[in-house]
Design brief:
The structure holds two protein chains of two kinds. Chain A is an alpha+beta fold. Helices cover about 30% and strands about 25% of the residues of chain A. The two termini of chain A are about 30 Å apart. Chain B is of the alpha/beta class. In chain B, helix 1 (about 15-30) runs parallel beside helix 4. The longest helix of chain B is centred in the N-terminal third of the chain and has 16 residues, at about 15-30. The mean pLDDT of chain B is about 95. Classes of the chains: A alpha+beta, B alpha/beta.
C-alpha cells in the first residue's frame, strides 16, 4: 500500500507550497508507470489524507506519461507496450528515457477574502 | 478567489533529502550500506543469517530490518550480531529514509564495515524510496516463478546486484533460468546476477562481492 505513503509525502510537499490560510482545491501530479502506483488506490489514499487535513473536497488529478525508450544504436525513440520491448533494429539494450517521472505540477487553492485582496497578480483559476 | 500555484517538484523530495543526510552519515562513518529488497519468503533473512555467520570475524555487519509486525526477524539476526535494529512499519509496505534515520541512531556506525537494510517483503513499494544506501540489491527465488524479473521492472532496472536464491529447488519447480536471465538483461545490462542457495550454504559470489565493496580481502568468507 505505498500509495498511502506517497499521498502523505505529496501532502507534505503541498503544505509547504500553500499560501497562508488557503484551502486546497486540487493538485496536479505526473506519475510515470515505473512507480507502480495504482490510480484507484492512490485516489483512495488521497481522499484519506486530505480529509484528515480538513480539505475533503480536494481533487487529485493524475497525469500518467507513457514509458519512453531510446535505442543507443539507431537513436530511435519510442513508446513501448512493455518496458522490455526490443528496438526494431534488433539492438537489445534500449535505454529508459521516460516513465519514471514523479512530480507535483501545480496546486489549485482558494484564498481567504483578506488574503485574496492582498494577493499579487498570480495565475487565475486554471491558467498556468 | 481561486488561484493556481505552479510547483513542479519531486513528490519524494522530503524523503530524498533525508536519504541524502543518511548517505552523508554512512560516508562519514566509512560504512558500506545496502538496501536488500525481495518478496516475502524469498529468503532475505535466511540469506542474512548465513552471510552474518560466514562473515563473522572478517567484517563487522549491522542490520536494520523492516517488517509490518513482530520482532521475529530481528531476534533471528541477533543470534549473529548485536547490531540489529528492528523497525515495525505497521500498515507501511516499505521503509522510508526517515525510519532508517531513526533506526541508525541506535547503531554505532563508526564500528561497522557493512550495514544491511532488510526492507519489508515487497517487490514494488520499497523500490521508489531512497534510504541513503550505496547499493540496491534485488533478491528473487526460483519458487516465485521465472516471470518475476519481467513483472517487476523498476527493481531490476535500479538494482546494483541481483540474486537468484533457492537454486537447489530447480529440479522440483518449473523455472527457466535462461529466460529469467534474458528478462534481467533486457532491463539491466550492468548489475551482476548471482545464483545462490542459502539452503546449501552456497552464497560465495554474494559474500565476495560484498567484501570487495567493503574493501576487504575476498578469499576467506566461506565456511
Amino acid at each position: 500500500m505505498h500509495e498511502m505513503s506517497i499521498a502523505m509525502e505529496l501532502l507534505t510537499l503541498i503544505e509547504s507550497r500553500m499560501p497562508p490560510h488557503a484551502t486546497l482545491e486540487a493538485a496536479q501530479v505526473r506519475i510515470g508507470p515505473m512507480h507502480g502506483v495504482v490510480a484507484e488506490a492512490m485516489q483512495w489514499a488521497w481522499r484519506t489524507v486530505v480529509s484528515e487535513k480538513g480539505w475533503p473536497q480536494a481533487r487529485l488529478l493524475i497525469d500518467t506519461p507513457p514509458w519512453q525508450l531510446q535505442c543507443p544504436a539507431c537513436r530511435r525513440q519510442w513508446q513501448p507496450q512493455t518496458i522490455d520491448e526490443l528496438c526494431t533494429c534488433g539492438h537489445l539494450e534500449a535505454k529508459l528515457v521516460g516513465g519514471d517521472e514523479f512530480l507535483l505540477l501545480s496546486i489549485d487553492v482558494v484564498l481567504p477574502p483578506d488574503n485574496a485582496a492582498q494577493q499579487p497578480a498570480m495565475s487565475s483559476t486554471g491558467v498556468l | 478567489m481561486s488561484i493556481t500555484v505552479p510547483v513542479v517538484e519531486n513528490v519524494l523530495k522530503v524523503n530524498d533529502e533525508i536519504a541524502l543526510l543518511n548517505r552523508r552519515n554512512f560516508n562519514d562513518a566509512h560504512v558500506f550500506v545496502i538496501d536488500l529488497i525481495g518478496a516475502p519468503g524469498a529468503g532475505k533473512t535466511a540469506l542474512l543469517e548465513l552471510m552474518l555467520d560466514q562473515l563473522a570475524g572478517i567484517v563487522r555487519v549491522g542490520v536494520v530490518v523492516g517488517d509490518p509486525a513482530t520482532s521475529r526477524d530481528g531476534q533471528r539476526l541477533a543470534r549473529f550480531t548485536r547490531h540489529v535494529v528492528q523497525v515495525n512499519t505497521g500498515h507501511g509496505c516499505h521503509l522510508d529514509a526517515n525510519q532508517v534515520r531513526q533506526a541508525i541512531t541506535k547503531l554505532p556506525l563508526a564500528e561497522l564495515d557493512i550495514l544491511v537494510i532488510e526492507n519489508v517483503g515487497n517487490l514494488i513499494c520499497p523500490v521508489g524510496f531512497d534510504l541513503g544506501q550505496h547499493a540496491k540489491v534485488g533478491l528473487f527465488s526460483v519458487s516465485e516463478g521465472d516471470d518475476k524479473a519481467a513483472k517487476h521492472p523498476h527493481l531490476v532496472l535500479t538494482a546494483n546486484v541481483l540474486l537468484l536464491n533457492k537454486i537447489d529447488l530447480l529440479p522440483y519447480v518449473p523455472f527457466d533460468v535462461p529466460r529469467f536471465r534474458e528478462d534481467v538483461r533486457h532491463l539491466n545490462q550492468v548489475a551482476p546476477l548471482m545464483e545462490v542457495s542459502v539452503a546449501r550454504r552456497q552464497i560465495d559470489p554474494w559474500t565476495q562481492w560484498l567484501l570487495a565493496q567493503a574493501g576487504r580481502p575476498q578469499s576467506s568468507a566461506t565456511s
